[in-house]
């Protein structure tokens, strides 16, 4: 792990992590996380067991003894997914525990890790999604269960998936659902305390018309037309639940919430009038 990363994560993640089975196949690993060492946004990894018995790990969090036991109970880890170029700090420990697992990531991740002095992961393990050109197929078993969309126009290079059997959309920073209630529930820290956290919670939530989250996305992406096209494809998927990395899981009605937050991108011709 690169120097400085330890300031963002709990000193003893074993004590404060919340492990929850959303379905028999989908398990969330929710933990405290501080953005810039100050803002309480929480972090979350997700385990998914495929019908074949293989396991995919999205946005890996600390590989504690309990997490290792839970993961091995599910099946054999074959996929480690950096859901964007910022959700990778624990890849080293997961790779060392499961050295044959494929690493799905934006094509920018290897150089991004090099610049931050992270452990160099084997090039042979990577399946990289390019900023331009067609997305790669992963494996027949993975492709049979997951829809995948890569959004390089997002500042963090988002890799979004939908687990079709459980109708679960899994994403990193594309959509926030703050405050991070579950992620801080085993600590003595309020997920809404602190002025910076209060401001960020007000900006990055799905309540009401989610106007500030809409604005962050609308003005924050590059090549808006290309981003809009990818968002429309995601909106065409069949999902009910959203598992974000930051904030609480949206247990039901996720499709409607996604459409609300992304409305300007889904109806791009009306977006400027809406702002």
Automatic annotation (TrEMBL):
It comes from the Eukaryota. InterPro entries: DUF4336, RibonucZ/Hydroxyglut_hydro. It comes from Zasmidium cellare (Wine cellar mold). It holds the Pfam family DUF4336. This is Uncharacterized protein.
């Amino acid at each position: 792990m690169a120097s400085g990363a330890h300031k963002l994560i709990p000193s003893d993640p074993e004590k404060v992590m919340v492990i929850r089975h959303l379905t028999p196949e989908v398990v969330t690993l929710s933990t405290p996380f501080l953005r810039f060492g100050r803002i309480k946004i929480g972090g979350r990894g997700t385990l998914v067991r495929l019908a074949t018995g293989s396991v995919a790990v999205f946005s890996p969090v600390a590989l504690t003894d309990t997490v290792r036991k839970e993961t091995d109970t599910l099946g054999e880890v074959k996929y480690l997914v950096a859901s964007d170029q910022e959700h990778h700090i624990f890849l080293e420990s997961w790779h060392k525990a499961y050295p044959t697992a494929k690493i799905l990531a934006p094509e920018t991740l290897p150089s991004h890790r090099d610049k931050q002095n992270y452990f160099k992961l084997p090039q042979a393990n990577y399946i990289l999604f390019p900023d331009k050109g067609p997305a790669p197929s992963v494996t027949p078993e993975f492709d049979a269960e997951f829809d995948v969309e890569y959004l390089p126009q997002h500042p963090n290079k988002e890799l979004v998936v939908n687990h079709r059997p459980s109708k679960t959309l899994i994403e990193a920073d594309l959509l926030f659902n703050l405050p991070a209630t579950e992620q801080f529930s085993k600590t003595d820290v309020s997920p809404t305390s602190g002025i910076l956290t209060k401001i960020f919670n007000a900006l990055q939530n799905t309540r009401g018309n989610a106007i500030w989250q809409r604005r962050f996305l609308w003005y924050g992406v590059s090549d808006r037309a290309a981003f809009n096209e990818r968002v429309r494809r995601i909106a065409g998927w069949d999902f009910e639940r959203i598992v974000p990395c930051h904030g609480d899981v949206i247990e039901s009605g996720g499709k409607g919430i996604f459409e609300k937050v992304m409305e300007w991108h889904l109806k791009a011709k009306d977006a400027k009038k809406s702002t």
